Amino acid sequence: MKTSEREAQILRIQSTSFQPELSTALEAKLRQAVVEVTQATLEAALVEELSAEREHPRKSLGRRSGYFTRVLDTEHGRINQLRVPKLRSGNKERSWQILERYHRGLGSLMNFSLSLYVMGLSLRDLQEALYHLLGSVLSVSAINRVTLEAQSHMDSHRQARLVKTPPILIVDGVWVDIQYTSEDTKVDRAGHVRQVRQAQERVVLTALAVWPDGNHEVLHYEIAEQEETRSWATFFDHLIGRGLDPTAVELVVSDGTLGLPAAMSQHLPGVKQQRCITHKVRRIKDYLSYAQLPTHNEQGQALKPSDAKQQRRYQIQHDAYEIYKAEDDTTAQQRLAAFVEKWQPIEPKAVQTFERNIDLTFSFYQFERLLHPRIRTSNLIERLFEEFRRKSDEIGAFPNEQSCLTIFFLIVQREQAKHERSNMAKN
Questions:
Q1: Are 187 and 146 members of one domain?
Q2: Which end of the chain is more exposed for a tag (fewer CB within 10 A), N or C?
Q3: Which of 158, 191, 207 is a domain's end point?
Q4: Mean of the per-residue pLDDT values for the chain?
Q5: 317, containing H or E segment
Q6: Rounded CA gap, 205 and 233, in Å?
Q7: Are strands 251-254 and 193-210 parallel, antiparallel or unpaired?
């Protein structure tokens, strides 16, 4: 392959990759995350180096006396206060192997490995990568210090105190596979006994805020075992704990999950519910009987049974969508009556299902017309889930919940950056 063709191929891959067109703000956040994880890793490695020397029979070290700080420049930014273990004496003469290796050229490689961790590298892969770079295996406690530092950064956005409550929430969940350690054990090829890890289904419950001016942002997300009343109740409880004012929420948009209404009655009493009209209309096809199908089209040509069924699905769903394109609730109700009159005689079961709890799909009419396209469906949150599914499908089963939440965090940041750029372009 010629160089120009290879370059074009790389550019095409970049354009469809996980992080195209990173905004300056998002890039800065990722760089800061790498700096923080680099600091945690070096500090953990310094402690490990000192511990190893203290156990060496030919070396005699004095007692520990806390830490002193020093400045370290990395390619992603400066660490202003790197905590270095301090001895009661001999600190000036002492040379640290870890820091010397870092300055000799380890920096770029280690920063690259830690960048991969911030992007979702598994803990085992991180431990192996750092072994090749640092020359020793960091202990479980040291790895935990690294992961806790990264998790703290990722959770800062998810757990930040809410200073303002949106009038509208769009809520839904996206299913993923996450590996968990079971009580069962197995013997690997080296003869070591290890606990078995199995992938289990979990759901990432998510709330997206919609503001009166049409702007939107992900407000909260967390992992749950099921999309049920108890899980949603816990979810809302955490939102309220972060500062959400239940009395300021006016509408919750959802796809009709069964456990949600009961959880809303507990934590958001009096809040109206908007059922996603897309989910409502799409369900029609599951109850079609295909009675009285036409045998010829408008031009008099014979229709295949499969084509006639497809035409029926299109026509009835088209008429259902037209109901919600009305400018006001009164006109929408009139279109609903016309829809029932037309389709009830030939598709009674589908119409009966469509009419069930139909009032919940008209709640969006109580808000400004500007918001109607955004709040009559759950499409805003579904687009976010679609991006997340693309990445989760590549990964397969996440190695742990931290990895899952980290990837979700990065996708949320990316989508928010795209939304903000779009608003800036309009203005």
A1: no
A2: C
A3: 158
A4: 81
A5: helix 305-324
A6: 11
A7: unpaired
